[in-house]
Amino acid sequence: MNAALDPTTLAESAHARMVRVAEEVAAQHAADVDAKGRFPAETFEALKRERLLGVWIPKEYGGEGISLTEMCDLVSRLGQACGSSAMIYGMHQIKMSSLIRHSGESPWHQDYMRECASDQLLLGSATTEGGIGGDLRNSICAVEVEGDRYRLTKQATCISYGRSADAILATCRRGPDSASSDQVMVVCKKGDYTLRETVGWDTMGMRGTRSEGFELISAGDARQIFVAPFGEIAAQSMLAMAHIIWCATWFGIAADTVVKSQAFVRAEAKKKPGVVPPGALRLAEVSASLQKMKSLLVAGIARYEAALADEALMNTLSFIAELNTIKVSASELGIEIAQKALMITGLAGYRNEGPFSIARNYRDLLSAAIMINNDRILGNTANLLLMSKVDTSIGG
Fold this sequence. Notes:
single chain, about 400 residues, Butyryl-Coa Dehydrogenase, subunit A, domain 1, Butyryl-CoA Dehydrogenase, subunit A, domain 2, Butyryl-CoA Dehydrogenase, subunit A, domain 3, 4-stranded antiparallel β-sheet
């Protein structure tokens, strides 16, 4: 689909356009998306129409070149309406960040960025694999290059929104004789690949992401293989962006949870003027926790932007450990907020319907701790801390 350029649309800020999508489309379909466990098609049609899928792409490639802070604001705003939509949008932007940062030596990838901006393409990801689970830095499958063509077969245990993506960025070994950690990433364009479902998707939360498992079989132009090794892509864009953008997603869902808790307490206060409702104290607590989440997100953005200006910082063990900690802490805070909000709203929050329901928010936030399992991240961080100094500075 070629999303026609609309000068009127682009005259508005990306934030204003996202507010319109969130309020007029995503919020209206969120309950049905969750109940049926279906891809939020209406929301992504609206995002394409508002030209928000390619908004992060630099202006010279047809995008709007917004900042990381602005991107996180867009993800968060969508998360306040529909957690699944925000997670899909965020994961798309994580893949987009790799394309933006690692296309410098590849005219093919630069042209593909222009295509993504012009046609508002949705990018998916195939990094997990049967036999290695969530270990992104190892692959079993390998890409085979013959002449100017590639082919690969990957047993992907999870490809979020795989059926609805316009392309899937897949990791694999550089070649059949390569070590499991010697990886590359390939842009598998729709039409280049087939998907055979191997694992279904009927889950507690984030139901609209449709994160099914597939056998991915793809063949195409060998130039679609990134020039940069995946280890570099993971360290310099993908993992850092995942932690930051996921944090923005969870912040948006948690923010909606706090807003609904506040509305509930206000409604209770109106019933008994002059009497402070019992949930008011916990409302203050969840508001403080939400502020902590925001602080973590802002700090993560600032730290990453500092690392972009200082290549040496990005490659330090302490930087990796810090981003790991932000992900773990934010995911735990989101769950804490949902638990306390349930105590505030009681049965009204526990219900799946009604103005104070936080059931979907709660279930979506529970996924935060297992998106790259916190125990795996803490184990990796522990190893990093054995080899690096603890950063005790304030100014970086």
